[in-house]
Design brief:
Length: 328
């Protein structure tokens, strides 16, 4: 019976549900393994269990109750990302406490014979800074814009594929943070507190920077930002996810594809101009985007076939049960 129940539940799972569930199981496993170095680890285990339970419920309701539940089933992944991101804040230093900024800087200097963030200072201007900070701040909106575009045209397969690829991309980048922790050039090549003076914007730059810093666990007034900032530099998740969104927008000929191309290109430039990333992080992000597309297609094809098999088995079991309860 437990095996039948599991297959019955999984018959409603999309590939996005699978990716989310597996990753949160991994989060729970590694939180248990490194719990001595993770404050409040019990809360993380509870949240991981709640997320997995919510996925099971949403998948089942979406399969049976239609439009609103399908909408929630698609967009719930946007809640999974900040939960997983915050847990990675504690997991990364627990698993790998060494920062690799020196190695990343050395690669950039070998490629360009200088530090790109210093070179870009030559074109710094408040208007450019404002535009690029706004573009950088649009990061989480870009996948939503594409998803809403596809949903409004009722292209449900494309809608779900985009979300699956995006969530897979986020989680692969988190694995990169574990392998290569780093804090970025705004701390190592520049003075963090001098950014507002050296790269001033116009109206929105300062509040958007504060928003970004707070999301990375360094709200205004943090005494030692370099020590407490999230280790999330390599690969550049901003580059990886933005490239994914741009490529998928053109693959599905979304109406918003040209807007996403322009905004996404500015965002990728902003990652270096605004000193969040080394150029090698962008190269890593591009490679991770290709990996995400290939791995995502494999996962989607494999799970679609397995899910159909589970659905057929579940239908067969139900038919047997009805037949047994109504003997001729």
């Amino acid at each position: 019976m437990p095996k039948r129940l599991l297959k019955s539940l999984l018959a409603h799972y999309t590939s996005m549900d699978l990716v989310n569930s597996v990753f949160f199981m991994l989060l729970a496993l590694f939180t248990l393994l490194y719990h001595q170095d993770i404050p409040g680890w019990e809360l993380f285990l509870v949240s991981d269990a709640l997320v997995i339970g919510a996925i099971v419920v949403l998948a089942r309701f979406a399969a049976r109750r239609g439009h609103i539940w399908n909408l929630l089933h698609g967009f719930y992944m946007m809640l999974c990302i900040p939960i997983a991101f915050k847990q990675m804040y504690f997991l990364v230093p627990a698993i790998n406490p060494i920062d690799y900024d020196r190695a990343l800087m050395a690669i950039d200097r070998a490629l360009f014979r200088s530090d790109p963030t210093h070179v870009l200072m030559a074109i710094a201007h408040p208007v450019l800074t404002e535009v690029l900070q706004i573009a950088y701040g649009s990061f989480y909106l870009l996948p939503l814009i594409l998803a809403v575009d596809l949903y409004r045209k009722m292209r449900m397969k494309a809608f779900k594929t985009v979300f699956m690829m995006v969530i897979l991309g986020f989680y692969l980048s988190y694995l990169g943070y574990v392998a290569v922790p780093a804090i970025g050039p705004r701390f190592t090549l520049h003075t963090f507190d001098s950014k507002d003076a050296e790269l001033p914007g116009l109206l929105l730059t300062t509040p958007l920077r504060a928003y970004t810093n707070t999301g990375e666990s360094i709200p205004p007034g943090t005494p030692d930002p370099a020590a407490t900032v999230q280790r999330d530099v390599f690969p550049s998740g901003h580059t990886q996810i933005t490239l994914l969104v741009m490529l998928l927008a053109f693959r599905y000929r979304a109406r918003t594809r040209w807007f996403l191309l322009v905004t996404g290109s500015l965002l990728i430039l902003a990652t270096v101009y605004l000193r969040y990333h080394y150029v090698i992080d962008l190269i890593g992000g591009a490679l991770f985007a290709v990996l995400t597309l290939q791995l995502g297609r494999i996962i989607d094809d494999w799970w679609t076939a397995r899910r159909q098999r589970y659905a057929a088995q579940t239908m067969h079991w139900r038919t047997d049960v009805r037949g047994a309860s109504h003997p001729s």
